[in-house]
Amino acid sequence: MPLPIKVGFVGLSTIGWAATTLAPSLFQPSLQDKYKLVAVSTTSQESAEASAKKHAAQLGHTIKAYYGSTSQIAADPEVDLVVVSVKPWSQKAAVLPVIEQKKNFFLEWPVGRSLQETIEIAEAVHKYGVRSIVGLQGRQSPVVKKVKHLVNSGAIGAIRSTVWTGLIPREPHFFPPLVAAENKFTLDGANGVTTLRLVAGPQLDPFTFTLGCFNTVNATAATLYPTATILDRDGNPTGETLPAVTPDHYTISGILDSGAIATIIWRTAYSSTPGRRHLLWEIEGEEGSIRIESDTSSYLNIDNPMVFLNGEKVDFAGADGNVLDILVSAWEAYAAGEESAYTTIDDAAKVHRFLDAVERSLEEGKTIVL
């Protein structure tokens, strides 16, 4: 694909993840010759024009404003790549017109509300022969790259077992027991925004990218916080309470392709008290061990935890980086055509198939063979 890649951005308002993190990652100095924002599209004329004006002033060139159906921005002959960052329940409707226009696209995780929607998007991708990149940037993390190198180099011998323990903290007020009023959509199961899909899912990709896929899965779950207290913008209770619709604790176990036994534990809603570990990922080999840990974040797609090899801290390039560095690495891989180095719609479908198996295991109370 000729450079720069001309980008049309769907869902780029003046606030939120797209505005504060995803889009700025495209505007980093190292990508100036590789990407150029040429158009934006939102749900209303007012917001589209405000976004176009803001980013035109920031970038120093004219940006077109579209609103309504994404077929309009996709039909723009100047647009090479359409970046779609909208709520999960709007993702399929937003991206399918883009694919039908045979435009390459980026789609933010969770890539639809369910496995079925992800599969529908994947089928369209293969039908129209377009390239895809999805918001599973964990494998671009310097931590993941280093740990994968250590595993593949035989630094700890044959992998025998691994345990991942992650935390979704209370403070963002995204899930029970305390939920901000603007996040109430997480309490509607039909929206596809659960702790399993939205948070655990993105971390599964770097896990399996490093150690291989699961052959079997057996899951248990519990709801320790059955109700949500709704908070206003100042963090005060509004007086409204709503029921939780999905579990807040999961234990997922199984056997990997290598024969190693793996366990993933997710805890939700604990406060980030001093000393509470957000991430502890231990990989046990025949000849040693690797430990990845953080007291600030469980998310390998936005943070760089510490890495220890046989108890000794490992220094590596990019260890002091941040979420923008990780996103930039994904954009660089896409621009270079290095498909194995970034995640695609097929990777997203694989993650969702595994999450579906987790839910089946919970419903049927048995081990699921994948």
TrEMBL record:
Residue span(s) of domain Gfo/Idh/MocA-like oxidoreductase N-terminal: 5-135
One MF term in the entry's GO annotations: oxidoreductase activity
Keywords: Oxidoreductase, Signal
Superkingdom of the source species: Eukaryota
Keyword Oxidoreductase among record annotations: yes
Signal peptide: 1-18
Domain Gal80p-like C-terminal positions: 142-294
PANTHER family on file: BCDNA.GH03377
Protein name: Uncharacterized protein
Provenance organism: Hypholoma sublateritium (strain FD-334 SS-4)
